[in-house]
Write a structure and sequence with these properties.
The protein is mainly alpha-helical. It is built from four helices and no strands. α1 runs antiparallel to α2 and α2 runs antiparallel to α3.
């Protein structure tokens, strides 16, 4: 597989955090003659960071939307989604 095919496969596997940093991580590994596992661990951390960031962004958007709705007109289920998103952010950030 060439790099383009690898990036395509990573996106298909929904690993776009790794796909976005692949070129940079490969260059860093080659320049520093880094062991494979160290490079792979850094790539996995890129993916985790990206996912946590997206989850945080979603939680903030839901909070903003929930706070902009008047109390008497709040849609059913909005607070439940907010609670589960907040719980997910807290759970992931404590790892």
């Amino acid at each position: 597989m060439n790099r383009i095919e690898i990036e395509r496969a990573l996106r298909e596997l929904r690993l776009s955090g790794i796909a976005e940093t692949l070129s940079t991580r490969v260059m860093q590994a080659q320049a520093a003659q880094q062991p494979f596992l160290e490079t792979f661990a850094a790539m996995l951390q890129d993916e985790l960071d990206r996912r946590r960031s997206r989850l945080s962004d979603i939680a903030v958007a839901v909070l903003r939307k929930a706070s902009s709705v008047t109390p008497g007109r709040r849609k059913a289920g909005a607070s439940g989604r907010l609670a589960s998103l907040s719980k997910g952010v807290l759970t992931q950030s404590s790892r």
